[in-house]
Amino acid sequence: MKWLIINPLIRSQKRVYDAFRAQGVPGEPFIPLVGQLWHMNEANKIGRGMDYIVDLVQKHGSYFLFGFGPLTRMILVEPELISDVLGRSNTANYEKPPDLINIVKPILGIHNLLVSEGDEHDRARKMLNPAFHFVNLRSMVPIMSNETVKAIDSLLSLALSTNEVNLEIQMNSLTLSIIASSAFGQGFETTPHAKESICTTFNKVKDVIEYRTLHMINQIKFLAELPFWGKKIVDDGAKKVNDFVDQAIADRRSGKSTSLCAGQDILDLLLNAVDDKGESFSDQQIRDEALTFVLAGHETTGNLMTWTLYLLMTHAEVLEACREEVDRILPNGTIPDFEHMADLQVIEAVLYESLRLYPPAAFIVRQCIKEHTIGGTNDKSSIFIPVGAMIVIHNYTLHRREDYWSCPLEFDYKRWMRDPVSGLKPKLTHPYAYLPFASGTRNCIGQNFAILEAKVMFAMLVQRCNFKLVPGQQIVPEMKGITMKTKYGLFAYVEKREI
Length: 499
Ligand code: HEM
Hints:
51% of the residues lie in helices and 11% in strands. By secondary structure, it is an alpha+beta fold.
Protein backbone atom coordinates (compact mmCIF):
# COMPACT_ATOMS: atom_id res chain seq x y z
CA MET A 1 0.00 0.00 0.00
CA LYS A 2 2.74 2.38 1.09
CA TRP A 3 4.85 1.77 -2.04
CA LEU A 4 1.99 1.53 -4.48
CA ILE A 5 -0.23 4.38 -3.35
CA ILE A 6 0.88 6.44 -0.35
CA ASN A 7 4.39 7.32 -1.52
CA PRO A 8 4.01 7.80 -5.29
CA LEU A 9 0.44 9.02 -5.41
CA ILE A 10 0.01 11.02 -2.24
CA ARG A 11 3.28 12.05 -0.57
CA SER A 12 5.26 12.87 -3.67
CA GLN A 13 2.33 14.75 -5.21
CA LYS A 14 1.76 16.72 -2.00
CA ARG A 15 5.47 17.57 -1.87
CA VAL A 16 5.28 19.09 -5.36
CA TYR A 17 2.02 20.87 -4.53
CA ASP A 18 3.49 22.40 -1.36
CA ALA A 19 6.67 23.48 -3.14
CA PHE A 20 4.61 25.50 -5.60
CA ARG A 21 2.16 26.87 -3.03
CA ALA A 22 5.06 28.07 -0.84
CA GLN A 23 6.09 30.30 -3.73
CA GLY A 24 2.62 31.78 -4.02
CA VAL A 25 1.55 29.75 -7.07
CA PRO A 26 -2.27 29.78 -6.89
CA GLY A 27 -4.35 26.68 -7.40
CA GLU A 28 -7.22 24.41 -6.62
CA PRO A 29 -7.06 22.59 -3.26
CA PHE A 30 -4.95 19.41 -2.93
CA ILE A 31 -7.33 16.47 -2.61
CA PRO A 32 -5.42 13.15 -2.35
CA LEU A 33 -5.97 10.61 -5.16
CA VAL A 34 -8.89 12.36 -6.84
CA GLY A 35 -7.84 15.99 -7.16
CA GLN A 36 -10.33 17.92 -9.27
CA LEU A 37 -11.33 14.86 -11.33
CA TRP A 38 -14.92 14.99 -10.15
CA HIS A 39 -15.33 18.64 -11.19
CA MET A 40 -13.70 17.91 -14.52
CA ASN A 41 -15.94 14.92 -15.16
CA GLU A 42 -19.02 16.96 -14.28
CA ALA A 43 -17.90 19.67 -16.72
CA ASN A 44 -17.22 16.99 -19.37
CA LYS A 45 -20.70 15.53 -18.93
CA ILE A 46 -22.28 18.84 -19.95
CA GLY A 47 -19.78 19.45 -22.76
CA ARG A 48 -17.71 22.04 -20.85
CA GLY A 49 -14.60 19.92 -20.31
CA MET A 50 -12.27 22.26 -22.22
CA ASP A 51 -13.92 25.41 -20.89
CA TYR A 52 -13.44 24.16 -17.36
CA ILE A 53 -9.73 24.98 -17.71
CA VAL A 54 -10.57 28.32 -19.41
CA ASP A 55 -12.66 29.16 -16.31
CA LEU A 56 -9.80 28.19 -13.99
CA VAL A 57 -7.50 30.55 -15.91
CA GLN A 58 -10.06 33.32 -15.29
CA LYS A 59 -10.06 32.41 -11.61
CA HIS A 60 -6.33 31.95 -10.95
CA GLY A 61 -4.40 33.61 -13.79
CA SER A 62 -1.98 32.22 -16.33
CA TYR A 63 -0.42 29.52 -14.12
CA PHE A 64 -2.00 27.49 -11.34
CA LEU A 65 -2.18 24.05 -9.71
CA PHE A 66 -4.75 21.45 -10.58
CA GLY A 67 -5.22 17.81 -9.51
CA PHE A 68 -5.70 15.50 -12.47
CA GLY A 69 -6.89 12.54 -10.42
CA PRO A 70 -4.01 11.70 -8.10
CA LEU A 71 -1.48 13.70 -10.15
CA THR A 72 -0.71 17.33 -9.35
CA ARG A 73 -0.16 19.45 -12.46
CA MET A 74 0.83 23.07 -12.99
CA ILE A 75 -1.24 24.44 -15.84
CA LEU A 76 0.66 27.06 -17.82
CA VAL A 77 -0.73 29.46 -20.42
CA GLU A 78 1.85 32.25 -20.15
CA PRO A 79 3.97 32.39 -23.35
CA GLU A 80 7.08 33.79 -21.64
CA LEU A 81 7.09 30.99 -19.05
CA ILE A 82 6.22 28.39 -21.68
CA SER A 83 9.26 29.46 -23.68
CA ASP A 84 11.39 28.52 -20.64
CA VAL A 85 9.84 25.06 -20.46
CA LEU A 86 9.88 24.16 -24.15
CA GLY A 87 12.89 26.26 -25.21
CA ARG A 88 16.18 24.60 -26.00
CA SER A 89 18.01 25.91 -22.90
CA ASN A 90 15.86 23.80 -20.58
CA THR A 91 15.36 20.72 -22.79
CA ALA A 92 17.57 18.59 -20.53
CA ASN A 93 15.46 19.51 -17.49
CA TYR A 94 12.31 17.83 -18.78
CA GLU A 95 11.04 14.50 -20.03
CA LYS A 96 7.80 13.26 -21.48
CA PRO A 97 5.42 12.21 -18.67
CA PRO A 98 5.32 8.52 -17.62
CA ASP A 99 1.56 8.33 -18.26
CA LEU A 100 2.11 9.14 -21.97
CA ILE A 101 4.62 6.28 -22.06
CA ASN A 102 2.06 3.94 -20.45
CA ILE A 103 -0.52 5.02 -23.03
CA VAL A 104 1.57 4.39 -26.14
CA LYS A 105 3.87 1.57 -24.94
CA PRO A 106 1.54 -1.36 -25.74
CA ILE A 107 1.46 -0.47 -29.44
CA LEU A 108 4.60 1.57 -30.11
CA GLY A 109 7.06 0.24 -27.56
CA ILE A 110 9.38 2.80 -25.95
CA HIS A 111 12.10 3.14 -28.60
CA ASN A 112 10.39 5.73 -30.77
CA LEU A 113 10.53 9.48 -31.35
CA LEU A 114 7.40 10.19 -29.37
CA VAL A 115 8.58 8.90 -25.99
CA SER A 116 12.32 8.09 -26.15
CA GLU A 117 14.68 10.50 -24.37
CA GLY A 118 18.28 11.71 -24.38
CA ASP A 119 20.82 10.34 -26.86
CA GLU A 120 18.39 7.80 -28.28
CA HIS A 121 15.91 10.56 -29.16
CA ASP A 122 18.60 12.96 -30.45
CA ARG A 123 20.02 10.30 -32.77
CA ALA A 124 16.63 9.30 -34.19
CA ARG A 125 15.54 12.91 -34.58
CA LYS A 126 18.73 13.85 -36.46
CA MET A 127 18.33 10.81 -38.71
CA LEU A 128 14.69 11.58 -39.50
CA ASN A 129 14.55 15.39 -39.63
CA PRO A 130 15.66 15.56 -43.31
CA ALA A 131 12.94 13.08 -44.29
CA PHE A 132 10.28 15.55 -43.21
CA HIS A 133 11.53 18.58 -45.11
CA PHE A 134 8.90 19.86 -47.55
CA VAL A 135 10.89 18.81 -50.60
CA ASN A 136 11.25 15.23 -49.42
CA LEU A 137 7.51 15.01 -48.90
CA ARG A 138 6.83 16.09 -52.45
CA SER A 139 6.67 12.56 -53.81
CA MET A 140 3.98 11.61 -51.27
CA VAL A 141 1.45 14.21 -52.50
CA PRO A 142 0.00 11.76 -55.09
CA ILE A 143 -0.63 9.22 -52.27
CA MET A 144 -2.51 11.96 -50.40
CA SER A 145 -4.60 12.95 -53.41
CA ASN A 146 -5.30 9.34 -54.50
CA GLU A 147 -6.52 8.38 -51.04
CA THR A 148 -8.65 11.54 -50.93
CA VAL A 149 -10.29 10.72 -54.28
CA LYS A 150 -11.18 7.25 -52.95
CA ALA A 151 -12.41 8.66 -49.63
CA ILE A 152 -14.62 11.24 -51.37
CA ASP A 153 -16.17 8.50 -53.54
CA SER A 154 -17.02 6.40 -50.51
CA LEU A 155 -18.18 9.45 -48.54
CA LEU A 156 -20.61 10.36 -51.33
CA SER A 157 -21.98 6.84 -51.67
CA LEU A 158 -22.33 6.57 -47.90
CA ALA A 159 -24.20 9.91 -47.89
CA LEU A 160 -26.60 8.53 -50.54
CA SER A 161 -27.38 5.46 -48.47
CA THR A 162 -27.46 6.87 -44.95
CA ASN A 163 -28.49 10.49 -45.48
CA GLU A 164 -26.38 11.98 -42.68
CA VAL A 165 -22.70 11.18 -42.25
CA ASN A 166 -20.47 11.46 -39.19
CA LEU A 167 -17.58 13.43 -40.69
CA GLU A 168 -15.32 12.74 -37.73
CA ILE A 169 -15.26 9.01 -38.51
CA GLN A 170 -14.77 9.64 -42.23
CA MET A 171 -11.92 12.12 -41.73
CA ASN A 172 -10.09 9.86 -39.27
CA SER A 173 -10.38 6.95 -41.65
CA LEU A 174 -9.06 9.06 -44.55
CA THR A 175 -6.02 10.27 -42.60
CA LEU A 176 -5.33 6.73 -41.38
CA SER A 177 -5.33 5.54 -45.01
CA ILE A 178 -2.99 8.34 -46.07
CA ILE A 179 -0.41 7.91 -43.34
CA ALA A 180 -0.50 4.09 -43.46
CA SER A 181 -0.21 4.06 -47.27
CA SER A 182 2.67 6.55 -47.02
CA ALA A 183 4.32 4.45 -44.32
CA PHE A 184 3.83 0.89 -45.62
CA GLY A 185 3.44 1.26 -49.40
CA GLN A 186 2.10 -1.39 -51.74
CA GLY A 187 1.62 -4.17 -49.18
CA PHE A 188 -0.95 -2.09 -47.37
CA GLU A 189 -3.06 -1.66 -50.50
CA THR A 190 -2.54 -4.97 -52.27
CA THR A 191 -2.28 -7.68 -49.59
CA PRO A 192 -5.84 -9.07 -49.44
CA HIS A 193 -7.81 -7.41 -46.62
CA ALA A 194 -4.63 -5.92 -45.08
CA LYS A 195 -6.00 -2.41 -45.17
CA GLU A 196 -9.39 -3.20 -43.58
CA SER A 197 -7.92 -5.63 -41.08
CA ILE A 198 -5.04 -3.39 -39.96
CA CYS A 199 -7.19 -0.23 -39.82
CA THR A 200 -9.91 -2.04 -37.83
CA THR A 201 -7.40 -3.54 -35.41
CA PHE A 202 -5.57 -0.25 -35.03
CA ASN A 203 -8.83 1.59 -34.28
CA LYS A 204 -10.00 -1.10 -31.85
CA VAL A 205 -6.71 -0.92 -29.93
CA LYS A 206 -6.90 2.87 -29.91
CA ASP A 207 -10.48 2.79 -28.56
CA VAL A 208 -9.43 0.55 -25.68
CA ILE A 209 -6.39 2.75 -24.98
CA GLU A 210 -8.72 5.78 -25.00
CA TYR A 211 -11.07 4.06 -22.52
CA ARG A 212 -8.16 3.09 -20.26
CA THR A 213 -6.79 6.65 -20.37
CA LEU A 214 -10.17 8.23 -19.57
CA HIS A 215 -10.51 5.92 -16.56
CA MET A 216 -6.98 6.69 -15.28
CA ILE A 217 -5.86 3.07 -15.85
CA ASN A 218 -2.98 3.93 -18.18
CA GLN A 219 -1.80 6.74 -15.94
CA ILE A 220 -1.14 4.44 -12.97
CA LYS A 221 1.61 1.94 -13.72
CA PHE A 222 0.48 -1.00 -11.61
CA LEU A 223 -3.12 -0.71 -12.85
CA ALA A 224 -1.89 -0.59 -16.47
CA GLU A 225 -0.16 -3.96 -16.03
CA LEU A 226 -3.22 -5.82 -14.67
CA PRO A 227 -4.95 -8.21 -17.14
CA PHE A 228 -8.26 -6.28 -17.10
CA TRP A 229 -10.03 -3.45 -18.89
CA GLY A 230 -9.28 -4.61 -22.41
CA LYS A 231 -5.57 -5.37 -21.89
CA LYS A 232 -5.88 -8.55 -23.98
CA ILE A 233 -7.46 -6.64 -26.87
CA VAL A 234 -4.54 -4.21 -26.75
CA ASP A 235 -1.90 -6.96 -26.55
CA ASP A 236 -3.43 -9.12 -29.32
CA GLY A 237 -4.08 -6.12 -31.55
CA ALA A 238 -0.57 -4.77 -31.05
CA LYS A 239 0.87 -8.18 -32.01
CA LYS A 240 -1.21 -8.32 -35.20
CA VAL A 241 -0.21 -4.78 -36.25
CA ASN A 242 3.44 -5.44 -35.39
CA ASP A 243 3.49 -8.67 -37.43
CA PHE A 244 2.04 -6.82 -40.41
CA VAL A 245 4.68 -4.09 -40.19
CA ASP A 246 7.50 -6.62 -39.80
CA GLN A 247 6.29 -8.29 -43.00
CA ALA A 248 6.07 -4.90 -44.80
CA ILE A 249 9.69 -4.16 -43.81
CA ALA A 250 10.91 -7.61 -44.92
CA ASP A 251 9.03 -7.27 -48.26
CA ARG A 252 10.51 -3.85 -48.92
CA ARG A 253 14.03 -5.00 -48.07
CA SER A 254 13.72 -7.97 -50.42
CA GLY A 255 12.19 -5.86 -53.20
CA LYS A 256 8.84 -7.72 -53.07
CA SER A 257 6.99 -4.44 -52.51
CA THR A 258 7.60 -0.80 -53.33
CA SER A 259 6.23 2.59 -52.35
CA LEU A 260 2.92 3.76 -53.79
CA CYS A 261 4.50 6.85 -55.31
CA ALA A 262 7.19 7.69 -57.85
CA GLY A 263 9.73 8.58 -55.14
CA GLN A 264 10.48 7.44 -51.61
CA ASP A 265 7.76 6.92 -49.02
CA ILE A 266 8.13 6.93 -45.24
CA LEU A 267 9.29 3.31 -45.13
CA ASP A 268 12.04 4.04 -47.70
CA LEU A 269 13.08 7.10 -45.71
CA LEU A 270 13.27 5.02 -42.53
CA LEU A 271 15.23 2.26 -44.25
CA ASN A 272 17.69 4.72 -45.78
CA ALA A 273 18.22 6.97 -42.75
CA VAL A 274 21.76 6.83 -41.29
CA ASP A 275 23.38 8.39 -38.22
CA ASP A 276 26.72 10.28 -37.98
CA LYS A 277 28.58 6.96 -38.11
CA GLY A 278 26.69 5.78 -41.17
CA GLU A 279 24.63 3.26 -39.16
CA SER A 280 20.97 2.58 -39.94
CA PHE A 281 17.98 1.86 -37.69
CA SER A 282 17.38 -1.76 -36.65
CA ASP A 283 14.23 -3.46 -38.00
CA GLN A 284 12.58 -3.10 -34.62
CA GLN A 285 13.32 0.63 -34.55
CA ILE A 286 11.93 0.99 -38.07
CA ARG A 287 8.74 -0.79 -37.02
CA ASP A 288 8.30 1.33 -33.90
CA GLU A 289 9.00 4.59 -35.73
CA ALA A 290 6.67 3.72 -38.62
CA LEU A 291 3.87 2.89 -36.20
CA THR A 292 4.60 6.08 -34.25
CA PHE A 293 4.06 8.11 -37.40
CA VAL A 294 0.78 6.30 -37.98
CA LEU A 295 -0.43 6.86 -34.41
CA ALA A 296 0.87 10.43 -34.00
CA GLY A 297 -0.08 11.41 -37.52
CA HIS A 298 -3.58 10.23 -38.28
CA GLU A 299 -5.92 11.21 -35.48
CA THR A 300 -4.34 14.65 -35.08
CA THR A 301 -4.74 15.44 -38.79
CA GLY A 302 -8.18 13.77 -38.87
CA ASN A 303 -9.31 16.04 -36.04
CA LEU A 304 -7.90 19.07 -37.81
CA MET A 305 -10.05 18.17 -40.82
CA THR A 306 -13.15 17.58 -38.68
CA TRP A 307 -12.90 20.95 -36.93
CA THR A 308 -12.08 22.73 -40.18
CA LEU A 309 -15.16 21.29 -41.89
CA TYR A 310 -17.26 22.31 -38.89
CA LEU A 311 -15.93 25.88 -39.13
CA LEU A 312 -16.51 25.85 -42.88
CA MET A 313 -20.13 24.77 -42.49
CA THR A 314 -20.79 27.50 -39.95
CA HIS A 315 -19.08 30.38 -41.82
CA ALA A 316 -20.57 30.93 -45.28
CA GLU A 317 -18.08 33.70 -46.15
CA VAL A 318 -15.16 31.35 -45.46
CA LEU A 319 -16.61 28.68 -47.73
CA GLU A 320 -17.02 31.31 -50.43
CA ALA A 321 -13.37 32.45 -50.11
CA CYS A 322 -12.10 28.83 -50.17
CA ARG A 323 -14.23 27.98 -53.23
CA GLU A 324 -13.06 31.06 -55.08
CA GLU A 325 -9.42 30.08 -54.49
CA VAL A 326 -9.84 26.37 -55.21
CA ASP A 327 -11.78 26.99 -58.46
CA ARG A 328 -9.09 29.46 -59.58
CA ILE A 329 -6.02 27.38 -58.67
CA LEU A 330 -7.53 23.94 -59.38
CA PRO A 331 -10.10 24.58 -62.16
CA ASN A 332 -12.43 21.87 -63.52
CA GLY A 333 -11.60 19.33 -60.85
CA THR A 334 -7.80 19.53 -61.29
CA ILE A 335 -6.13 17.22 -58.78
CA PRO A 336 -3.72 19.19 -56.57
CA ASP A 337 -0.02 18.44 -56.79
CA PHE A 338 2.99 19.78 -54.94
CA GLU A 339 3.31 22.79 -57.29
CA HIS A 340 -0.17 24.04 -56.34
CA MET A 341 0.52 24.04 -52.63
CA ALA A 342 2.12 27.49 -52.33
CA ASP A 343 -0.83 29.07 -54.15
CA LEU A 344 -3.49 27.66 -51.82
CA GLN A 345 -3.14 30.56 -49.40
CA VAL A 346 -6.74 30.91 -48.17
CA ILE A 347 -6.90 27.14 -47.64
CA GLU A 348 -3.68 27.36 -45.63
CA ALA A 349 -4.89 30.35 -43.57
CA VAL A 350 -8.17 28.56 -42.75
CA LEU A 351 -6.21 25.52 -41.52
CA TYR A 352 -3.95 27.65 -39.28
CA GLU A 353 -6.96 29.42 -37.80
CA SER A 354 -8.69 26.11 -37.22
CA LEU A 355 -5.54 24.86 -35.41
CA ARG A 356 -5.73 27.97 -33.23
CA LEU A 357 -9.33 27.53 -32.09
CA TYR A 358 -9.34 23.73 -32.02
CA PRO A 359 -5.77 22.46 -31.58
CA PRO A 360 -5.96 18.63 -31.87
CA ALA A 361 -3.08 18.35 -29.39
CA ALA A 362 -4.95 20.52 -26.89
CA PHE A 363 -2.20 20.31 -24.32
CA ILE A 364 1.46 19.36 -24.00
CA VAL A 365 2.82 17.76 -20.83
CA ARG A 366 6.37 17.74 -19.46
CA GLN A 367 7.81 16.29 -16.27
CA CYS A 368 10.69 18.07 -14.57
CA ILE A 369 13.71 15.80 -13.98
CA LYS A 370 16.19 18.47 -12.83
CA GLU A 371 15.18 21.37 -10.61
CA HIS A 372 15.51 24.85 -12.11
CA THR A 373 13.76 28.22 -12.27
CA ILE A 374 11.60 29.62 -15.03
CA GLY A 375 10.67 33.26 -15.62
CA GLY A 376 14.11 34.78 -14.85
CA THR A 377 16.17 34.02 -11.75
CA ASN A 378 15.73 37.27 -9.77
CA ASP A 379 12.38 38.29 -11.04
CA LYS A 380 9.37 38.35 -8.74
CA SER A 381 7.49 36.36 -11.35
CA SER A 382 10.06 33.54 -11.42
CA ILE A 383 8.95 30.06 -10.41
CA PHE A 384 11.18 27.35 -8.98
CA ILE A 385 10.31 23.99 -10.58
CA PRO A 386 11.01 21.02 -8.32
CA VAL A 387 11.93 17.54 -9.61
CA GLY A 388 8.79 15.52 -10.35
CA ALA A 389 6.64 18.57 -11.15
CA MET A 390 4.32 18.01 -14.07
CA ILE A 391 3.74 21.03 -16.33
CA VAL A 392 0.73 21.19 -18.65
CA ILE A 393 0.88 23.73 -21.46
CA HIS A 394 -2.77 24.22 -22.29
CA ASN A 395 -2.86 25.14 -25.98
CA TYR A 396 -6.64 25.36 -26.16
CA THR A 397 -6.67 28.16 -23.57
CA LEU A 398 -3.40 29.74 -24.69
CA HIS A 399 -4.78 30.16 -28.23
CA ARG A 400 -7.83 31.97 -26.85
CA ARG A 401 -6.06 34.53 -24.65
CA GLU A 402 -7.48 38.01 -25.17
CA ASP A 403 -4.14 39.71 -24.59
CA TYR A 404 -2.46 37.77 -27.41
CA TRP A 405 -5.26 37.51 -29.96
CA SER A 406 -7.68 40.17 -31.16
CA CYS A 407 -11.29 38.89 -30.96
CA PRO A 408 -9.94 35.50 -29.81
CA LEU A 409 -13.20 33.59 -30.10
CA GLU A 410 -13.86 34.76 -33.66
CA PHE A 411 -12.93 32.50 -36.54
CA ASP A 412 -10.90 34.97 -38.59
CA TYR A 413 -8.72 33.18 -41.14
CA LYS A 414 -7.50 36.52 -42.51
CA ARG A 415 -5.19 36.94 -39.54
CA TRP A 416 -3.03 34.22 -41.15
CA MET A 417 -2.94 35.52 -44.74
CA ARG A 418 0.60 35.88 -46.05
CA ASP A 419 1.98 39.26 -47.15
CA PRO A 420 1.27 39.43 -50.91
CA VAL A 421 4.73 40.88 -51.62
CA SER A 422 7.09 39.04 -49.25
CA GLY A 423 4.98 35.88 -49.00
CA LEU A 424 5.68 35.84 -45.27
CA LYS A 425 3.11 34.87 -42.63
CA PRO A 426 2.08 37.68 -40.21
CA LYS A 427 4.22 37.91 -37.07
CA LEU A 428 2.74 36.45 -33.88
CA THR A 429 2.32 38.69 -30.82
CA HIS A 430 4.61 36.20 -29.05
CA PRO A 431 6.43 33.20 -30.59
CA TYR A 432 5.01 30.95 -27.86
CA ALA A 433 1.41 32.18 -28.13
CA TYR A 434 0.58 29.61 -30.84
CA LEU A 435 1.72 26.03 -30.30
CA PRO A 436 -0.40 23.55 -32.26
CA PHE A 437 2.77 21.63 -33.12
CA ALA A 438 4.60 22.45 -29.84
CA SER A 439 8.06 24.04 -30.08
CA GLY A 440 11.71 23.32 -29.35
CA THR A 441 13.58 20.05 -29.67
CA ARG A 442 10.42 17.96 -29.19
CA ASN A 443 8.20 19.85 -31.61
CA CYS A 444 6.13 17.90 -34.13
CA ILE A 445 8.41 16.31 -36.70
CA GLY A 446 5.39 15.64 -38.91
CA GLN A 447 4.07 19.20 -39.14
CA ASN A 448 5.08 19.72 -42.78
CA PHE A 449 3.50 16.39 -43.68
CA ALA A 450 0.34 17.34 -41.76
CA ILE A 451 -0.05 20.76 -43.40
CA LEU A 452 0.65 19.38 -46.88
CA GLU A 453 -1.81 16.54 -46.36
CA ALA A 454 -4.48 18.82 -44.85
CA LYS A 455 -4.15 21.25 -47.78
CA VAL A 456 -4.63 18.44 -50.30
CA MET A 457 -7.62 16.93 -48.45
CA PHE A 458 -9.32 20.22 -47.62
CA ALA A 459 -8.88 21.70 -51.12
CA MET A 460 -10.34 18.54 -52.70
CA LEU A 461 -13.26 18.33 -50.29
CA VAL A 462 -14.14 21.99 -50.95
CA GLN A 463 -13.73 21.39 -54.67
CA ARG A 464 -15.87 18.23 -54.92
CA CYS A 465 -18.46 18.22 -52.12
CA ASN A 466 -21.22 20.34 -50.64
CA PHE A 467 -21.54 20.07 -46.88
CA LYS A 468 -24.45 21.09 -44.68
CA LEU A 469 -24.49 20.74 -40.91
CA VAL A 470 -27.32 18.56 -39.59
CA PRO A 471 -29.28 21.03 -37.43
CA GLY A 472 -29.84 20.62 -33.69
CA GLN A 473 -26.48 19.03 -32.84
CA GLN A 474 -24.32 20.09 -29.94
CA ILE A 475 -20.76 20.42 -31.22
CA VAL A 476 -18.34 20.69 -28.34
CA PRO A 477 -14.69 19.70 -27.96
CA GLU A 478 -13.57 17.01 -25.56
CA MET A 479 -10.23 15.33 -24.85
CA LYS A 480 -10.38 11.68 -25.85
CA GLY A 481 -7.16 9.71 -25.46
CA ILE A 482 -4.42 12.13 -26.43
CA THR A 483 -6.32 14.37 -28.86
CA MET A 484 -9.25 16.77 -28.81
CA LYS A 485 -12.27 15.50 -30.71
CA THR A 486 -15.95 16.42 -30.95
CA LYS A 487 -17.87 15.05 -27.97
CA TYR A 488 -20.78 13.65 -29.98
CA GLY A 489 -19.39 13.51 -33.54
CA LEU A 490 -19.98 15.91 -36.44
CA PHE A 491 -23.01 15.00 -38.55
CA ALA A 492 -23.51 16.54 -41.98
CA TYR A 493 -25.45 16.12 -45.22
CA VAL A 494 -22.93 15.68 -48.01
CA GLU A 495 -23.61 16.03 -51.74
CA LYS A 496 -21.52 15.84 -54.87
CA ARG A 497 -20.62 19.31 -56.15
CA GLU A 498 -20.87 19.77 -59.91
CA ILE A 499 -17.49 20.85 -61.29
C1 HEM B 1 -2.55 18.44 -37.40
C2 HEM B 1 -1.75 17.42 -37.21
C3 HEM B 1 -0.76 17.30 -36.08
C4 HEM B 1 -0.70 17.96 -34.89
C5 HEM B 1 -1.64 19.04 -34.37
C6 HEM B 1 0.47 17.46 -34.18
C7 HEM B 1 0.89 17.93 -32.95
C8 HEM B 1 2.01 17.48 -32.30
C9 HEM B 1 2.47 17.98 -31.03
C10 HEM B 1 1.83 19.10 -30.23
C11 HEM B 1 3.59 17.29 -30.71
C12 HEM B 1 4.42 17.45 -29.44
C13 HEM B 1 3.88 16.48 -28.42
C14 HEM B 1 4.58 16.56 -27.10
O1 HEM B 1 5.63 17.15 -27.00
O2 HEM B 1 4.05 15.99 -26.13
C15 HEM B 1 3.83 16.32 -31.76
C16 HEM B 1 4.89 15.43 -31.77
C17 HEM B 1 5.07 14.49 -32.76
N1 HEM B 1 4.35 14.36 -33.92
FE1 HEM B 1 2.78 15.49 -34.49
N2 HEM B 1 1.06 16.49 -34.94
C18 HEM B 1 0.37 16.37 -36.13
C19 HEM B 1 0.66 15.53 -37.17
C20 HEM B 1 1.70 14.65 -37.21
C21 HEM B 1 2.04 13.81 -38.34
C22 HEM B 1 1.29 13.81 -39.68
C23 HEM B 1 3.09 13.03 -37.95
C24 HEM B 1 3.85 12.01 -38.74
C25 HEM B 1 3.91 11.94 -40.03
C26 HEM B 1 3.43 13.41 -36.59
C27 HEM B 1 4.44 12.84 -35.86
C28 HEM B 1 4.85 13.29 -34.63
C29 HEM B 1 5.97 12.71 -33.88
C30 HEM B 1 6.80 11.51 -34.31
C31 HEM B 1 6.11 13.47 -32.72
C32 HEM B 1 7.17 13.30 -31.63
C33 HEM B 1 8.36 14.18 -32.02
C34 HEM B 1 9.49 14.18 -31.00
O3 HEM B 1 9.24 14.11 -29.81
O4 HEM B 1 10.65 14.27 -31.47
N3 HEM B 1 2.57 14.39 -36.19
N4 HEM B 1 2.86 16.46 -32.71
